[in-house]
Structures are given as C-alpha cells and as structure tokens.
Design brief:
Radius of gyration: 37 Å
Number of helices: 3
Shape: rod-shaped
Order of helices and strands: HHH
Distance between the termini: 83 Å
Mean pLDDT: 87
Strand content: under 5%
Amino acid sequence: MGPWRQPIDRLQAMLVPETSQVDALRVQQHDDARALQARQEALQKKIRDIQQQEQALLQLVRHHQPVSREDVARARQQRDDDWRGHQGRSGHPARPGRCIRGTDS
C-alpha cells in the first residue's frame, strides 16, 4: 500500500466498515467470480460450436461443391448463347414450336 501521505488526523478520523458491509462485499466478489467463470465456460462452448460448424461447412463444400444461383444463371446463359451460336453456324434454324430456355420472357 505504501506510506500514508495524508495528515495523521485524517487517518484517525476514518471509520472501520461494519462487518456486514465487509461480508456483503465478500459475497458480491464471490458471486462475481462465479458469474465470470460461467461466462467463460459459455464462451468456450460457443467457440467449440463455431469450430464444429466451420468444419461441417468445409466438408459440405468439399463434398458437394455448391454453387450460387448467380453461377447457375451465368452457366445457363452461356449454354444458351453457345447453342444459339451453334445453330447459326450449322445453317439449321431452331425447329418451329420450340423455344430456347431463357428467351421466352
């Protein structure tokens, strides 16, 4: 704590806290320590849950190779463009009554 730097009469005027106040502070400190421990344990559980979900996501991507709707739309558009280009080069028009997907909108 170090040496007292105030006048000695100020030290003499200080009152010792009641035992009930000290006990209440000890109980509060104990409760705070338990609450801290519970929150730390909950945090560790959340971290484990996140790690498990990240692992599951990585495995899903590795095994199923999902694509976005935008990727599918681009692939379909590319397919349709390639098909139209192929029809133009072959000299065979599209059969009557048939429409190419994506152009009937």
